[in-house]
Amino acid sequence: MGKGLNKESSISFVLDTIRKYGPINRYEIARKTSLSPATVTNITDKLIKAGFISEVPSSVSKRGRKPINLTLSNKNHLSIGIEIDARYITGVVIGLDGDVQKSERIEVNRSTPEDIFQETVKVYNSLVSCLDRRKIIGLGVGIPGLIDPKNRMVIFSAVLGWRDVSVDEFLSIIDVPLFIEDNVRAITLGELWYGAGIGKENLLCIGAGRGISAGIVIDGAIYSGPNDRAGEFGHMVIEKDGKKCKCGNYGCLEPYVSTETIIEKVLEGIENNAYTRFSPKDEDRLFEEIVQAGKEGDKFILNIFEEVGEYLGIGIANIINFFNPELIILADELSKAGDLILDPVKRAIRLHALPPIPEIVISKLGSLACAVGSATLAVKELLYSKSDQYIALMGR
Ligand SMILES: [Zn+2]
């Protein structure tokens, strides 16, 4: 074994390398991990038998057959992820490789925990209906608000209007390991493993929708803080004696940049006879309609994104100066606006952040990011937290 690693850490080292750089061949794994080729072959053979990884058919080039590549498997183990939001429930089935094999979204308009979890169970049952149940490794649920993942409790959710809700109580009917996480941290994990953040070690993922918060990745791991409170980016004060925030404070970032604010500004402008051709049609799809009008060049809408983007960029500049991240990912509802929001955000960052300015990108997993990230919770547990399983693997 190279680097004095024990069996267990060698396995997770190999898995990590395949996850980050796969498809990758055994020689490259040996090079990147400094393990001997024989050790890598031994470990990868066992990981293939366990169904964690699989071989990708090799291609033949002019110089002969290329070495066989390895990736995380999409066949033997499947994870279910569900995002709960006040307006919809979104579910996915993913393999260990993160590929979405099935997805489903239903609209909801009730928000008591009983109602929402009843719908959640329906979405789960529909997702797993045609699957071999023995392959399901777990269910992850992403919920907006202050979450206690260890005890699977929603401490408080402003979006859902919940306080002290035990998720176990409602989902114990589902007989697989259950994980819950705050929605933005789930998005961050999804982007880190399977999206825009692959291969990065230090990044910030800004979840901007009706609420604003940030997922923080330090040295490849999600940082939550001792009270799971880290990342309350929306409550950074950016204006002395500014707008009142839902948290009770004044001048927080959130009331300047949330999608709710954008909708309010648009409706207010229309009421005050702003020069625009935009007129709202579907109340439930208002934000999408606004984005569409912006993309079609409506000046009134563009100015609103410009103003919101400037505030958001100032907020992000502050955390760039503080964290020195290598990447910023913009996710959640606001990210649907794409360049409409990204361009003014980048301009404000260039004005206010100290160089070097990190790359700033839009979420790669899009509207499935939270569901995929929630499913990743069970994948992470399977691949990295079961040391007994590793020892059994190596003992075979
Ligand atoms: Zn606030």
Keywords:
single chain, 396 residues, Arc Repressor Mutant, subunit A, Nucleotidyltransferase, domain 5, 3 domains, five-stranded mixed beta sheet
Description:
This protein has 396 residues and is an alpha+beta fold. The protein has 3 domains: 2-73, Winged helix-like DNA-binding domain superfamily/Winged helix DNA-binding domain (Arc Repressor Mutant, subunit A); 78-190 and 370-384, 2-Layer Sandwich (Nucleotidyltransferase, domain 5); 198-363, Nucleotidyltransferase, domain 5, CATH 3.30.420.40. It is 40% helix and 22% strand. It has helices spanning 7-21, 26-33, 37-49, 113-128, 167-171, 183-194, 254-257, 259-271, 286-295, 299-323, 339-352, 369-384, 387-395; strands at residues 24-25, 53-56, 60-61, 64-65, 69-72, 78-84, 88-95, 100-107, 136-143, 146-148, 153-157, 162-166, 178-182, 203-208, 212-218, 221-223, 327-331, 359-362. A 5-stranded mixed β-sheet has the order 8-7-6-9-13, with helices on both faces. A 5-stranded mixed β-sheet has the order 16-15-14-17-18, covered by helices on one side. It has a 3-stranded antiparallel β-sheet with strand order 1-5-2. Strand 15 and strand 16 form a beta hairpin. Helix 8 packs antiparallel against helix 10 (299-323). The chain starts with 6 loop residues before the first helix and ends with a helix. The relative contact order is 0.13. The model has no long low-confidence stretch (mean pLDDT 92). The structure holds zinc ion. Zinc ion binds next to loops.
Any idea what the radius of gyration is? 23 Å
In percent, how helical is the residue content?
40-55%
Shape, principal axes of CA atoms: globular
Terminal Cα span: 18 Å
- Residue ranges: pLDDT <50 for 5 or more in a row? none
Q: Output mean pLDDT.
A: 92
- The SS-based structural class is alpha+beta
Strand fraction equals 15-25%
**Bound small-molecule species:** zinc ion
- Enumerate how many helices there are, as a single number: 13
